[in-house]
Amino acid sequence: MSEVLKWVGDIFLFAGGFLCITGGIGLLRFPDFFTRVHAAGVTETLATPLLLVGLMLHMDWSLDTLKVLMILIFVLATNPTATHAMAKAALHGGLRPLVKQTDRSNDAGDESSKT
After folding, report:
1. Is the pLDDT of residue 33 over 70?
2. Which of 18, 31, 40, 71 is most deeply packed, by most CB within 10 A?
3. What average pLDDT does the segment 39-63 reach?
4. Whose CA is closest to 37, among 26, 47, 48, 46?
5. In whole angstroms, what is the distance from residue 7 CA to residue 45 CA?
6. Residue 113 domain flag
């Protein structure tokens, strides 16, 4: 059973590491503040618990495991709230989301482009 827990812990650690890398790429590649905050929020809210659960599965039951569990609960309680507060503060501060410009001449309702 211990070997199975180690393998499951490895899977959790790999998935959490993968999400951390993709979140970092999102922070570099996304065009505006709001999409970058989304990438950071998803990384913090999903990757961190995966990494912490993976660590807990590799540990023997002790006081350290309880401490990691308390950190996990704290992260899950605070990170979504902090991400939402950052985005809302930016919105109230006057920062607007990036709006993609579309080519209106290709719209079906635009009669001037058909003549």
Report:
1. yes
2. 40
3. 90
4. 26
5. 23
6. no
**Mean pLDDT across 35-44:** 87
Q: Please give the model's pTM, rounded to 2 decimal places.
A: 0.75
Yes or no: say if 23 and 61 are a contact pair by the CB < 8 Å rule. Answer: no
Tell me what pLDDT residue 110 has. Answer: 54
Residue 73 falls inside a structural domain? yes
Q: What are phi and psi of 14, to 5 degrees?
A: -65, -45
- Work out the angle at residue 25's Cα, subtended by the Cα atoms of residues 19 and 27, and round it to the nearest 5 degrees: 100
Number of structural domains (the chain) is 1
Query: In this structure, what token pair is assigned to residue 67?
Result: 């401490």
Does a structural domain hold residue 76? yes
Region label for 110, one of left (φ > 0), alpha (ψ between -120 and 50) or beta (otherwise):
beta
Residue in 43, 28, 23, 25 with CA at minimum distance from that of residue 83: 43
Nearest Cα to Cα of residue 58 among 1, 115, 7: 7
DSSP 104: G
**Residue 34 pLDDT:** 87
Helix or strand run (H / E) with residue 23? helix 2-29
